[in-house]
Request: fold
Amino acid sequence: MLFAIDCLDKPDHQSLRLAHRPAHVAYMMGFRDKMVLLGPLLTADGTGMVGSLIVMDLPDRAAVETFLAHDPYGQAGLFESVMVRPFKKVLPEA
Reply:
């Protein structure tokens, strides 16, 4: 099942994000076969990162929670909020 995961950073936490980014990217690479898309959410001018948008193909909500619990960003306390919703990909067709 696809899940859209919308994570917003705590205000003024750019340095925390950058400090944990290598570990976060390495962790995400372990899920390449489950990724639909992922990347940072940016500031209005596109120069800074303020969150993450992830769409993953995982079996259920429990698997999403486990995935998030082991993400270095989450473990570092980067996120102010995390919203998880089931997602249906319509376009482009596979």
Q: What stands out?
A: The chain has one domain: 2-87.
